[in-house]
UniProtKB/TrEMBL annotation, chains A, B:
Protein EC: 3.4.16.-
Family matches, as InterPro entries: AB_hydrolase_fold, Peptidase_S10, Ser_caboxypep_his_AS, Ser_caboxypep_ser_AS
Main location per the UniProt record: secreted
Protein name, as recorded: Carboxypeptidase
Family: Belongs to the peptidase S10 family.
GO-annotated biological processes: proteolysis
Name of the top EC class for this enzyme: hydrolase
Signal peptide: 1-23
Localization, UniProt: Secreted
A family per Pfam: Peptidase_S10
A GO molecular-function annotation: serine-type carboxypeptidase activity
Superkingdom of the organism of origin: Eukaryota
Naturally occurring in which organism (per UniProt): Phaseolus vulgaris (Kidney bean)
Length: 472, 472
């Protein structure tokens, strides 16, 4: 989906006009910012010292494509801290359901589906975090033209996300000069580099740094269909999940298959692999699945499954996703988050089947974007929890290896509190970080390690090693 | 180390003479059995309903090669239950230190090194367990001729273990007719099939079923140097522990190397791999190492390390081995276990460096023995904890694949309490069982799953599946 330069320029000009039109046609931005401020949430039995905001931004007026966001300021001194946009994958999954509510956000949901508890490893300890439900049809994001939900794809998502950001910075002009970074996981392995590319092109076309993009970081990210599948087959075999024969047949029958459109024979061997795995949580190999909904979980790893939909980890509640469903369908919660009653979904879902099954365009690889953006000097980090079967560490290794980047700093273990947190290698233009014992949703399974990771990424330093820690 | 039939016959005849000589020259067997009975152990603040015995059996009179055993009767109805011999590896490691004290035995040691707690998953719930420290120089086993500790190897170990068993059954004749099975892990991947082969040959040569051997079961077992190394390199890469370059160089420089005598270039790349891994417990990838002794644990996976020496898992104490060292060096404990003051080691060790570094013969593969014994109809099970880096699941898969056995029952998940306990495949003559989330010492890391495993092995049934469980 790489766009031609001239085509993008026209698009950028249109965007500018659209942005101006908007700023005159609605409430003044700062007033809308004020209106978006969220008070105490239902079930929030603790105080918070930071401000947070939730609301909508219309990214296309004609169809009324409107994206829902939740912006959470940093715990301390937000104006000096970077701004991080977090995107979940699917396609079709809500960043509020996953990113905010069970991964990096400050408000995590108790099993009663009514009350909240603070996440001590919230990324707003080190950054302002912006959660975006994208594209339309995801979470509380909507379109006035329902048929648009049947026409989502990578291309329009990147464009809509860019418009969203331009307008969001109008509403929150005080964050224009902060360092801006994008992060996400799973299918956001497409969204994040694609949006980064769109920003770089927009900035270049308009000859101004409209968005102060400094870099991006993705985890267990869909990157390249060939490497992702090759790595998945290998990881399933080397972890002991599938038979020798199934491993051979997956490699034979699914070789170079598109994730979107696998052949019949590839689908058939996937069915066999699926049965061999048994009732595990493929997003986290060593933790129990949520038994509250056996039918959903017995689906396991299937090509037709959403990538990054579940993600559930014995210090941890495997049913987190279900608590979100209860909480965000409560009318009082929707009111508190300024959800528009005229546009709210009949039932709020963590992931939209409509969006997923009607996805239009998905390039087989985004490695070309990595090449382009590495050349631009963006800070690019790629991390991987090494107990994820869906987009395993092997997949990511194959993709990074294909980039053929020179090594700056050799492979080594990194440490947190004196324990190996994982492994890391710094390449020219890209830093790779493995998080030991984390599944598909790294901040869910290893919240403390994930906070160390984002802190280090934002600081632009190297992952901590044992010597530095013991002398610090 | 396959022995010729005629050579073995002479050996067997000598054994018989030796056995007769012994039975007339010492205490009557039943008297010695009575003398070996162990009372309440120091620090045992709980009652047990079963009997247990500890003592010595001299396997070669001239040099005074004498092996120490600890025999623990089944919790209930021991005479109707099978007898399982358990062997640890190294070479040089004590079955009492590992098998009894932190894996399958009923007496586990508290961190104070003084008191014991009962192991609720002790294998004496389903079998009588015989722990043997073998060969001489291991644990409390000794030789009157110290130079013999410099001449241990697979060959003599198998012979001495056979003599031990013949004499042990003289002392415990009430167990002669019980089903006899052998189990063990790590380097016992050599000992167990080698001893099984020796028993089969002895029974055949003497034309009597002197030892009622029914089968064996090994876990994370050294089996075939080529496959074991190939699998280890692959597992280290696919788990994200080593760099791409180191992975390539290990395969290049250590290809077909002997584990005992690696080349200089292979050793060098091992040193690099070792550093890349960092301070993890290679015997259990996702659990913290014991920080009580950093120098020992920073050694990590090295070719010169003992195989199966450590083995330490967060519901679990990583310093178990250290508690054994304290406990078994206590004079009152040694007295309770009938340790001979004239022959006790200056310091009791969990693993002997002298034995390990002076090991003489170690065949590169025992797959030929598998072929031979499968043909004999022995029940053979092979299991693997899939978080062990030292002899990982990939190694065992390569070795089993090399046996080219027909499949009887296809690959599937097995279940314990409704959760996936691992995966299994039944071949003609061999059953393979993976234990999910277990390290090198499966019964240490996953005690409940290990008890299910041995119970199923002894029953001769298939590993439980979900349907069977939910209807039972």
């Amino acid at each position: 989906m790489a766009q031609s330069g001239s085509g993008f320029l026209c698009f950028a000009t249109l965007l500018l006009c659209s942005a101006f039109a908007t700023s005159f046609s609605t409430d003044p931005p700062l007033l809308q910012q004020h209106k978006d401020r969220v008070g105490r949430l239902p079930g929030q039995n603790f105080n918070v010292s930071f401000a947070h905001y939730a609301g909508y931004i219309t990214v296309e007026e004609n169809a009324g494509r409107t994206l829902f966001y939740w912006f959470i300021e940093a715990l301390e001194d937000p104006h000096s801290k970077p701004l991080v946009l977090w995107l979940n994958g699917g396609p079709g999954c809500s960043s509020i359901a996953f990113g905010q509510s069970e991964e990096i956000g400050p408000f995590h949901i108790n099993p009663d589906g009514k009350t909240l508890h603070p996440n001590p490893y919230s990324w707003n300890r080190v950054a302002n975090i912006l959660f975006l439900d994208t594209p339309v049809g995801v979470g509380f994001s909507y379109s006035n033209n329902g048929s648009e939900l049947l026409n989502n794809g990578d291309n329009r998502t990147a464009k809509d996300n860019l418009v969203f950001l331009l307008k969001w910075f109008e509403r929150f002009p005080q964050y224009r000069s902060n360092d801006f970074l994008i992060s996400g996981e799973s299918y956001a392995g497409h969204y994040v580099p694609q949006l980064s590319q769109a920003i770089v092109k927009y900035n270049s076309a308009t000859k101004e740094q409209a968005i102060n993009l400094k870099g991006f970081m993705v985890g267990n990210a869909l990157t390249d269909d060939y490497h992702d599948q090759l790595g998945m087959f290998e990881f399933m075999w080397s972890s002991g999940l599938i038979s020798d024969q199934t491993y051979k047949l997956l490699n034979l029958l699914c070789d170079f298959e598109s994730v979107e459109h696998p052949s019949h024979s590839c689908e058939n061997i996937w069915e066999i692999a699926d049965k061999e795995l048994g009732n595990i949580d493929p997003y986290s190999l060593f933790t129990p699945p949520c038994h509250a909904n056996v039918s959903q979980l017995s689906r396991l790893v299937r090509r037709k499954n959403r990538i990054g939909r579940l993600g559930l980890s014995t210090e941890y509640d495997p049913c987190t996703e279900r608590h979100s469903i209860v909480y965000f369908n409560r009318p009082e919660v929707q009111t508190a988050l300024h959800v528009d009653l005229d546009h709210k979904p009949a039932t709020w879902e963590t992931c939209s089947d409509v969006v997923y099954t009607n996805w239009k365009d998905s390039p087989r690889s985004v490695l070309d974007i990595y090449h382009e953006l590495i050349g631009m000097g963006l800070k690019i980090w790629v991390f991987s929890g090494n107990t994820d079967v869906v987009i395993p560490v092997t997949s990511t290794r194959y993709s990074i290896s294909a980039l053929k980047l020179p090594t700056l700093s050799p492979w080594r273990a990194w440490y947190d509190d004196g324990e190996v947190g994982g492994w890391t290698q710094e390449y020219a233009g890209l830093t790779f970080v493995i998080v030991r014992g984390a599944g598909h949703e790294v901040p869910l399974h290893k919240p403390k390690l994930a906070l160390t990771l984002v802190q280090t990424f934002l600081a632009g330093t190297s992952m901590p090693n044992l010597d530095l820690l013991s002398t610090s």
